[in-house]
Every structure is written in structure tokens, then in C-alpha cells.
Amino acid sequence: MSVAEIMQSMDYGPAPEGTTEAEAWLERHGRRFGCFIDGTFETPGSTLDSHNPARDEKLAEITQATQSDVERAVAAARKAQPAWARLGSGRARPLYALARVVQRQARLLAVLETLDNGKPIRESRDIDVPLVARHFYHHAGWAQLLEDEFPGQQALGVAGQIIPWNFPLLMLAWKLAPALATGNTVVLKPAEYTSLTALLFAELAHRAGLPAGVVNVVTGDGAVGELIVEHPGIDKIAFTGSTEVGRRIREKTAGTGKRLTLELGGKSPFIVFDDADLDSAVEGLVDAIWFNQGQVCCAGSRLLVQESVAEPLIAKLKARMAKLQLGDPLDKGTDIGAIVAPGQLARIQGLVQTGIDEGGEMWQPDLPCPAGNFYPPTLFTGVQPAATIAQEEIFGPVLVATSFRTPGEAIELANNTRYGLAASVWSESINLALEVAPKLVCGVVWVNATNLFDAACGFGGRRESGFGREGGHEGLGEYLRPAWDLGRKAYVETKIASERPLLEPDLGLDRTPKLYIGGAQKRPDSGYSQAVLDPKGVLLGEVGAGSRKDVREAVEAARKAAAWSRATPHNRAQVIYYLAENLEARRAEFGARIAAQTGVSRRAARAEVRASVERLFAAAAWADKFEGAVHQPPLRGVTLALNEPHGVVAVVCPDEAPLLATVSLLGPALAAGNRVILVPSEPHPLSATDLYQVLDTSDVPGGAVNIVTGRRQDLAPVLAAHAEIDALWYFGPAELGAELERLAAGNLKPTWIETRRRDWRQRHQGEGREFMGRASQVKNIWIPYGE
Ligand code: NAI
Question: Which of 163, 169, 242 to mutate to test the pocket of ligand 1 (most atoms within 8 A of CB)?
Fold first, then answer.
């Protein structure tokens, strides 16, 4: 045999990573683990088995935590919190120590992760663990800078964090690092399949000097997760996992005042244009869908390929798939390891069968596939966009391919999903890629790349992929609140309903302001109007009694007004300045109206108008200054963090400060590029209806602002439940707030529900970054460069 022949026929020999240290650690604990509370392992209670899915061997037993375990963990976290928060920038040192400990113990952590989860050692060693260390380093720096960079902000308190099994240690880092950097303490629940690295981490962290009670780990299944979600001593829930459980958590936390971030499922498009480098795109696909066996929330699981290159791309892809190594996750040559558990394998098999039954063409390379929890790389072609496997998250190594003709069609197909987590765009034309990226409804876009992560770049989704961001500047905000937040008074229901009967349709109704929809006044569908009384009960006027049908029309008008969201910030600023000027020109009339409705002195009413004009000027000023960032993650490339509008935002205004509160909310919502459906103060709606003419004369395009007057109790729930509304803001009594938050779980719209009063006159409570942040969400666009 010649050397050339040997080079051709040579196969990889096995190269398994040793497990001695990991096995020794398990043995030291007798392969039985209690929860880790207040700095120590507790005695194990009743236990669940934790398996090595690659060998179907039991690795250890973990405790199914009880109510009293969760109680103790929360109590420990609560006790430790004030001192931890008081450390201030002193928290940086223990966080650096955590980063170092992860680096020092990288091999042990990687091996244990692979044993417990089944992911290839190459991934746990080269991706997961280094990213964990990077996360703690980065956030140690934030702890150092927090007081300067987030002035006037403080920790929420105790965070309950629930994580999944696909990246056990990395998700732990994503959760712990920002919570700890901002002075919160934590009760963390790892997934029942993969709790071991969290327990090891807790032990290592405390050995490295983390104070007792700062991080507590309770183990067990979803029931333990529920105990955390329901615990009144917890101030925030951060959850990563399935959309189904995320929605349940939204419903359970509704009205509790707990802050919430949800990082849920996805069905992310991987778009290949005809000018893409196809070989790179194929390598990208390997990372997109066969990384971690496709058990990745942001996996590029939907290949959308331009028709003219579909054939060569699929041919190259099949050739590449036939070279993937499937097998022992501990082997350094393995590309695809084990599926996490038999249940997950069955789910993948079931969905693949559905794909075949629905007419998709399934292809798998002829690879040796070990028995047990393994599944070969799989490609479906000829799949209709509406097919189950094109819509459902499979969470396995299964790629579903569809072709498209034009960029417009690609965007439409990409957005044709209930999810909105990530997307990958492949084109050698920077113009095309950056034209497409902002049009994709998702939180992360990778240009000519995929599955890149970094602590400095926020991560999170839209729509049913959840809300909130983890990582980066925006991720820290999820764990902070303004110091003035404490000690606010609750909103109470203004007693008006019984005193203000609906008025019969009046043919001479023209005095009555109608609703404002799509830039025109419109009679309410009910034909009824509602009386507006002054504080003494004297009739001041009437407003339209809006109903469900009016809300639907307003939503339609707002959806059509998408041009406002695409307008340049400069243009939006100009319109809002104009609005402010036109309001100022009518200040006497607006002042008189406020005084008549609310009974405040004329002086106070004039002050409210002045403040409202200022507020609009401030919103206009912010329109082109609430800018994103350019991150420089550790790769050759940049990440653009763009602030994007939600889309259509429903704003249910508070009863008080009828003009000032309204414009304080409307201004930033518009400035950020949202279209708005506004329900004005119920007792004092005339300040909002007087705005119709101001809006008309200020070049605000029709549909950008829609105002529906009527009973808050009737209108707000319709808005909260509406699937075409992208975010909901509500300022009012707690009972209705809780109902709205529950209803908003339907399409998982982000909510800003405030049931305690602000002083709208105070600038720090009524304008600024907080408002612009609420009005937008960050999209991170990754642009690697170089040949
Ligand atoms: P899951 O959502 O049930 O589990 C995630 C975490 O939530 C685990 O720690 C679990 O114990 C906990 N949990 C379960 N029920 C809970 C409840 N009612 N309240 C509080 N916590 C609860 O995900 P599962 O069942 O492991 O996987 C099912 C599917 O979910 C997967 O096939 C995949 O499609 C999707 N998934 C998505 C993930 C993502 O990162 N987006 C991660 C894991 C699963």
C-alpha cells in the first residue's frame, strides 16, 4: 500500500477523554446529592436518578426538593442578600474568582457535563466551559462599574432561576452572572436530567469564597420549579425552557409583581441567498443544527435557500452530513453525541414520522448509529411552510429545507412562525444581509455565521420565544430597579362606573368626541357615548364608549401604519417636536380642560400642560439618541445592538394627570418607533380626545396613534388578549393588572404593568431611558469579518 493510499484509507482512531476526576468527584459524594443551601450540601431526601444518556448508565441520584427545601433556600438567599448588595463594587472580586475557578477546573466541568448531558466533549470543552468563564469575567467587570453605569438603581432581591438541560452549565452562568453582579442572590433549579455540574459549580464557588446563601441550588423536576415560581419571597423569575412552561409561568406570576424574563423555544431560519459562499454556508449549517444534537433553542432548524442554488447546496450538504461522526460523546473526534434522554429521543422520532406522513422527503446519511439515545443527522426537503415540522420546534438533529425566490419571499417565510428567537443570513453582499437583518422578527441575527454567543451581547427573543434579554448591558437591567421604586402607593379604583351611565345614541352627537382610529375620528361601534363629569358631578361632555370591535379596528389601523416604525429616528423626532409645539400653542385650552375635569387649581393645570410640552420635547430629543451599541466580542467581527420598536403597543393610561401621564407614555412609545393604541384616563378622557386635532396638525401619520375611549375594565382585557398587539402597558389598580398579565400570556407579549403610582411631574419618574427601554427591545446583529 502506498503512502497516498494509506492517507485515503486512514480512519480516525478512538480518542476518548478520561473520566477519572469526574468519577472521583461523584464517588466522593457517594453518588447521592442533597440540595446545596446556605453554603453546604444538605442530606439527600427522596431522589431521582441522573443518567449518562450515551451509555444509559446511572451516574448519581439527585434530591427531589420539597417545599421546605425551597423555603430554606429562599430564606438563605434572603438573609444573604443585603450584605451581598452592600458589597457594591466589592462583588467584582468574588465574581472574578468564579471565572478563575471555572478556568482552573475546566476539564472536570467539561467531562462531567458531557457525562451528564451526552454532548460531545469538544463542545463542552471548547464552547460551553470557556463561555461560562467569559460570562463571569465580563460580569465581574459590571459589578465593578455598576454604580456609575446604572446610577440610582438597586438589586431586586432574590432571583429564582430555572434552567434547561441543553446547556446546563452555560445557562447557569447566563443566569447567575448578571444576578450576582447586580447584587441579587439566587435560588437556582437545574433541569432534572442535568443537575450535576450545577452542584459541582456551587461547591467550587463556595470553596472559592462566595458567601453562603448567595447561590443556592435546589434540584428536582418541574414541581420544584413551580414551588420557586409560586414562592412569595422571590422577586424575579428567570426561566429558560419550553414555550409551554414559559407561558404557564407567565400566568402563575401574573399580578404578583415578580419580574420575569422568559427565554423559550424557537424555529430559527437559516437563510442562504444565491450569492452566498455555499461551502461556508454548509459549515454554518453543521453548527446551526448539529451542534449539541440540535438541542439548541436558537438552532438554525429551518433552511431557507434561494431556488437557484438549492440543488448545489443540498448536494454539498448531503456530502458533508455523510462525514459527520456520530457516537461516544467523550471521544474528541465525535461531532454528534447522545440525545439527552429517551423521552426526548421519542419526541424527535415522533416529529420525524409526522414529517414523513405529511409528505416531506426525509434523508439520512448512511452512518453507523450507536444503539440507545442516538439519532442520526436528518434532512427534510420538499416541506411546505405550514407543515408541522416546519412550524414545531423539534429540538433534535433534524433540518427542514424550503426554497424561496426573492429576498422578500425569504423574509416572509422567515417570519412565518410563532417564534422569534434567532436567524442566520448568508450572502456575500453586505447590503443585502443588512437590508434583511432588521426585517427579521427576532432577537439575534448572525450574518454569515451562526450560534455565536458572548457575555457582552444580549440574547433573547420576541413573540413566543419569550421576552427580556440575558447578557450585555440590557441583561443587567432585568435585575435592577430604580431606588425610588420602593414605598410607592398603590393605584385604587376610581369610583365612576355607577355615576356615569352610558348615554343613548344622540342624533345631535357631533359635540361628542368620537374615537380616533387610523388618523380619523370614528363613531364608536356601539353608538353609545359615556358621560364625563367634573368632580362635583356636573356633566362636562361625553366621549365614545369604545368596544371590542373598535379595538379590533384600531389594531388593524396600527398594523397598517408600519411605515412609522420604518421612519428614520430623525423624522420621528421632527414629528414629535411639531406635536409639542402644537400642544404649546393651545396650552390655555388644555389647561382649562385639566382644571375642569380634575378640579386642580388653574395654576396646577397650567403646570401640567407645561410639563407635558416639555415631556414631548424630551421624547423628540430621545428619538434619535436612544442608540444601540457596537460590541466587540472576542472574535473577528462586531455585534450591532440595535434598539427596535415592539411594533404595536397598547397603552392603558392611569386615571391621574390626564395629559401629562398620557404624553409621558405616548411620547417615548412613538419616539422608539411604535404604533400606539391608547386608552385614556377613564374619569378624565377629554385631555386625550382634545389631542386629536393636535395629532392631525402635527403630521403624525394615520394609524400611528389610535385613541379608544371607554371603560378601562372592558377595553384593557381585549387589548391584553389580542394576538396582534406586541406589547402592553398598563397603569392602574392591581386586580385588573393581574388579569391583564394573565391574558397577555396568550402571545407572550411583554408587559409593563404598574399598579403603584408614580409622580409624573418628576422628570426621573416620567421620562428618560427607562421609558425608551420599555418602548424598545434589543436586536443583536453579529457581523464577523475577514476572509
Ligand atoms: P421544560 O420547559 O419542561 O424544562 C425546562 C426547565 O423547567 C426544567 O428545569 C424543568 O424542570 C422546569 N420546569 C418544568 N415544568 C415546570 C413548571 N411547571 N414550572 C416551573 N419549572 C418547570 O422542557 P423539557 O420538558 O425538558 O423539554 C420539552 C421541550 O421543550 C423540548 O423538546 C424543547 O422543544 C423545549 N425546550 C426548549 C429549551 C430552550 O432552551 N428553549 C430548553 C429545553 C427544552
Answer: 242
C-alpha separations of 26 from 50, 64, 106, 478 in Å: 12, 18, 16, 35
- Does residue 198 line the site of ligand 1, with CB under 6 A? no
Give every CB contact of residue 353 below 8 A, 6+ residues apart in sequence: none
Size of the chain, expressed as the number of residues it contains = 787
Residue identifier of the C-alpha nearest atom 25 of ligand 1? 242
Instruction: Judge if the beta carbon of residue 265 lies within 6 A of ligand 1.
Output: yes
Where are any strands of DSSP class E within 268-406? 268-272, 300-306, 361-363, 378-381, 398-404
* Alpha carbon of residue 613 to chain centroid: 33
* Residues 612-634 as b or e (16 or more Cβ within 10 Å = b): bbbbbbbbbbbbeebebbebebe
pLDDT below 70 — which residues of the chain? 12, 496-512
**Over the stretch 142-179, which tens digit does the pLDDT of each residue have?**
999 999 999 999 999 999 999 999 999 999 999 999 99
Strands (E), 92-248: 153-155, 158-162, 185-189, 215-217, 236-240
State the Cα angle at 550 between 547 and 553, rounded to 5°.
Answer: 155
Amino acid at 28: R
Q: pLDDT digit string (tens) for 668-703?
A: 999 999 999 999 999 999 999 999 999 999 999 999
CA–CA distance, 665 with 678 (Å, rounded to integer): 9
251 pocket-lining for ligand 1 (C-beta < 6 Å): no
Best residue among 188, 229, 245, 260 to mutate for probing ligand 1, ranked by most atoms within 8 Å of CB: 245
Nearest atom, ligand 1, residue 163 CA: 9
- Helical spans, DSSP H, in 193-329: 196-207, 222-230, 243-253, 278-289, 307-321
C-alpha cell at 330: 467523550
Q: Which three cell numbers stand for residue 264?
A: 423559550
Element (H, E) at 481: strand 480-482
Q: Give the global pTM.
A: 0.96
Q: Whose CA is nearest to atom 8 of ligand 1?
A: 191
